[in-house]
Design a protein that fits this description.
The protein is built from 3 helices and no strands. It is mostly helical. The protein has one domain (2-64). The chain starts with a helix and ends in a 5-residue tail after the last helix.
Length: 69
């Protein structure tokens, strides 16, 4: 979470600077739209992770007990 928050604010700042240098009228709004669109990737990622969670947890428990995977 800390890495994500640190990276997103830094990337957002660079994007604002790049949009302003390109002559965009509203660089902050443009950055917010791009970051929102990029964050939509989280929806399918969390869905996939949730579907795999139980199987991965069980495999980890088997591995920790020495039963193999």
């Amino acid at each position: 979470n800390v890495v994500g928050l640190g990276v997103s604010t830094t990337v957002g700042g660079f994007m604002i600077d790049a949009f302003a240098a390109a002559g965009r009228d509203r660089p902050i709004t443009d950055m917010m739209l791009v970051m929102t669109a990029a964050s939509l990737v989280a929806i399918p990622a969390f869905y996939i992770a949730a579907r795999r969670f139980a199987g991965d947890r069980d495999a980890l428990w088997r591995y920790e007990r020495g039963e193999g995977v």
